[in-house]
Amino acid sequence: MSTPDATPCCAPLTRETISADDAATLAVRLKAIAEPTRLRLLSLIAAGDGGEMCVCDLTGPVGLSQPTVSHHLKVLVDAGVLTREKRGVNMFYTVVPSALDSLAVVLTTSAAAPSPAGA
Amino acid sequence: MSTPDATPCCAPLTRETISADDAATLAVRLKAIAEPTRLRLLSLIAAGDGGEMCVCDLTGPVGLSQPTVSHHLKVLVDAGVLTREKRGVNMFYTVVPSALDSLAVVLTTSAAAPSPAGA
C-alpha cells in the first residue's frame, strides 16, 4: 500500500547537487512514467472529456486487456501522477498536473529557466 | 552501438495525444535517467568546474567503482543527455542541457505553461 505522493522532491537537477535520498525518490517517480503504455495512458486521460477517463475507455486505444491497463494505472496512481474516483461501477482517472510539472521543474536546466528580472 | 539522439521527440504529453512510436522513444530516454546513481551523476557533472567532470572525480562522490560509474555514464551518453570528450588519458563528461529541457517540456502541463499573450 504505497501512498500517493506528488510533493516536489528536489531542486532542479543541474542547479543544485541532488542528495542520495532525493535521487532515490525522484528515480521512483521517473521510473513510474518511463514506460510506453503508461505515457500513452497519461496522454489519453489528459485528452479525455473533462480531463478524465474510465478504464473501460482506455483498453481500446492502447490495445491491452483491462487487468493490464488497470495494473499500469495503479502504478501511476501510486506515483501520484493520477488520481482515481469510483462513480457507479466505473473507476475514473484524472492526471495530477502538479505532479508532472514538479518532475519537469527538476529536469529543466538553467539554459531554459526564465532569467531573473533585470538579469 | 546506439547513436546519441537528443532530438525533441514529442509535444507536451497532456496537450497532444502521444503516438505509440513517440511514447516508445520517450520511455527509453526517461528510463535512462530514472536511476538514482545516474541522476546523481548528472547533477554532479553539471556542478563540476566548467560544467564537466572526469570519471576519475565521480567515483568518490557516488561511492562506486570506476567500471560501474563508466557503465552508468555510457547509458546517459547513449540517451543523449551527456557528451564525452577524451583529453589525455581522461574522459570528460558534460551535460547536454537541451536534452534535459526537451524532456521537461514533454512533462510540463498546460497548468504550468505560460499563457498565450492576451489570454
Please tell me about this protein's structure:
Two copies of one chain form a homodimer. The first copy, chain A, has a domain at 36-107: Orthogonal Bundle (Arc Repressor Mutant, subunit A). In chain A, 49% of the residues lie in helices and 13% in strands. Chain A has helices spanning 20-33, 36-47, 55-62, 66-78, 97-107; strands at residues 52-54, 82-87, 90-95. A three-stranded antiparallel beta sheet of chain A has the order 1-3-2. In chain A, α2 (36-47) crosses α4 (66-78). The longest helix of chain A has 14 residues, at 20-33. Chain A starts with 19 loop residues before the first helix and ends in a 12-residue tail after the last helix. The A-B interface holds A 13-18, 20, 23-24, 26-27, 30-31, 33-37, 39-40, 42-44, 46-47, 95, 97-98, 100-101, 103-105, 107-112 and B 13-18, 20, 23-24, 26-27, 30-31, 33-37, 39-40, 42-44, 46-47, 95, 97-98, 100-101, 103-105, 107-112.
Secondary structure topology:
2 copies of one chain form a homodimer.
Chain A: H1 20-33, H2 36-47, E1 52-54, H3 55-62, H4 66-78, E2 82-87, E3 90-95, H5 97-107
Antiparallel strand pairs in A: 1-3, 2-3
Helix pairs in contact in A: 2-4, 3-4
Strand residues, percent of chain A:
5-15%
The fold-level CATH name of the domain at 36-107 in chain A is Arc Repressor Mutant, subunit A
**Do you know the CATH architecture of the domain at 36-107 in chain A?**
Orthogonal Bundle
**N-to-C SSE string of chain A, H for helix and E for strand:** HHEHHEEH
CATH class of the domain at 36-107 in chain A: Mainly Alpha
Radius of gyration computed on alpha carbons of chain A: 16 Å
**Helical segment count of chain A:** 5
Total strands of chain A: the figure is: 3
Alpha-beta classification of chain A:
alpha+beta
Widest sheet: strand ordering of chain A: 1-3-2
Largest sheet of chain A: 3 strands, antiparallel
Helix content of chain A: 40-55%
The dominant shape of chain A is elongated
Mean pLDDT across residues of chain A: 88
What is the CATH superfamily of the domain at 36-107 in chain A?
Winged helix-like DNA-binding domain superfamily/Winged helix DNA-binding domain
Measure the end-to-end span of chain A: 47 Å
Largest contact between protein chains? A-B, 39 and 39 residues
Subunit organisation of the chains: homodimer
Poorly predicted runs of chain A are none
